[in-house]
Amino acid sequence: MKVSNSFSRVAISKGASVGIIVILIVAAGLGIYYYSTLPTKTTTTPTTSSSSTTTSTSTLYYGPKNSSVLVDDACQVGCASPDSLDPGTAFFGQDGSYLTAVFQDLAGMNGSNGLVALPVESSGWTVGNNSQQYVFTIRPDVYFSNGDNVTAYTIWFSYVREVYMNAPSLVALSNWNEITINSGDYFSAVCGNLAPFGLIDAISSVEGWAQTSSNCGEFTTFLNSMLSNYDPATNATQRDVVSYPDQAYVANSSMSYVINTLRPYGDVVLDLAGFSGTHTVDPAFVDAHGGVQNNTNNLYLASNCEPGTGPYICASTEGPAGALTEVILEANPHYWAKGSGANGLKPSLKAEWFIAPPKIPIVEIEYGIDSNPTLQYSNFGSNIAQISGFTDNGISQWNSMWAAFQEKQYFTFDQIVKDYGPGDFSFYLGMDTQRFPTNNTDFRLAVVNVMNYTALAETELDFNGTSYGSQVVGPGIPPYGALYNPLNLPLQTQDINKAATYLNEAGIQDGFYTIMPNGTKLGDTSGTQLGTQDLYYIVPATPAQTLQLEIYEESLALIGINAQPVGVTSAVFDSLSANPLTAPAFNNIAWGIDYPDPFYNQYLCFYTTDCGITTYINNATLASLVTEASFSGNSTFRMQVDEYLYKLSAQEGYYVWLPYPDLVDWVQPYLQGVVQNIYVSYYYNLMYYSPVPLKSS
Question: Which of 494, 545, 552, 686 could make an S-S bridge to 673, C-beta 3.0–4.6 Å?
Answer without folding.
Answer: 686
